[in-house]
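Support reply, case 0932

Customer input (verbatim):
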Amino acid sequence: MSLPTKFSFSAIVVFWVAPLWAAGEPWSDEFTPPPGDYSWIQLDSGEWLKGEIIALYDESLRFDSDHFDQIDIDLDDIISLHSRGRFVISLHQDRAVQGVLNIRGQQITVTREDEKLEFDRTELVSITPSAERERDRWAGDISMGMNVRRGNVDISEIDISAGLRRRTPVSRLTLDYVGNTNETDNERITDSHRINLAIDRFTGRKLYWRPVSAQYYRDEVQNISHQGTVDTGLGYHLLDTARWDWELRAGVGGNYLENVSVEPGEPNGEWSPVGTIRSDLVVDITSWLEWEFLVNMSFLEEGAGKYQHHVVSTLSTDLVGNLDLDVSLVWDRTEVPQAAEDGTIPEQDDYRMIVSLSYDF
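Our regenerated output:
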């Protein structure tokens, strides 16, 4: 007895489609991302994701998906990429090209108005959105904390920090300032200022060169009238994931120290070679809480302090928009403080806790 034609056709469809559906296989081996408002990436599992390309550094692509939000994907897990809009593609040997980006297997294609360029995937260093205006390359933050008390004791204390950063696919410029003043009963208790300037050149996926780094420091309580450091060195990205960002830097250079006062007969103004080590760790504990731990060390001759460090541990909590609440612990140390004119020797260590509001822009 033969089966009805309708039943036979349905059975064939079930037998062919059900195993594919159960195994999660695509309906077709070929898929071409449609034009529109999204970039597309294909994983080595065959799955496709659509969204926005934030950037690619250190062999990790930061991708903003409507479903998954911002995620980090290893470059090795991506077999195809189709971008929407123009990007700056940084390659080895300090080369950079700009255009619409496509990756398929080991081949990179960059399409510009009048030509199509092709590169091998092993040459890729970074991908960043094309900045149409100069101000798109800049970002910064400013933070302020204040303590004012009047009555039996008059206290005015102000803590200010600010930072500016300019980023391109092959370079980074940073400028930071940290200042703290405290006046109690019309007497200056604290007056410290620190300015840092650095220029970085990215030479690989993780390694970068710092051609020049400069720091100016002033702290009259530590008997430091002026201290300037200029050095050059290398940096390395130990970690760069969705939650962890850790950089190490080391350099060598020169240091000049001038004290507020010195003992009679002692010279004032000391030049010294310097070695520097800096560690900067940033951890996203939750979506609204961030911890940064910064250590900046300098190794000097004994007449210039022998050893100094600046350590800052900051918890930052999102409040509203770009406004954050920061709580910082600061530890400054000079191993061999220089004696003042009256023979007094400053303490080796200074500690501060700072509560401030910060704004990112």
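We compared this against your earlier run and they match. Two observations from our side: The longest strand covers residues 224-240. The domain at 31-130 is CATH 2.30.30 (SH3 type barrels.). Please reopen the case if you see a mismatch on your end.
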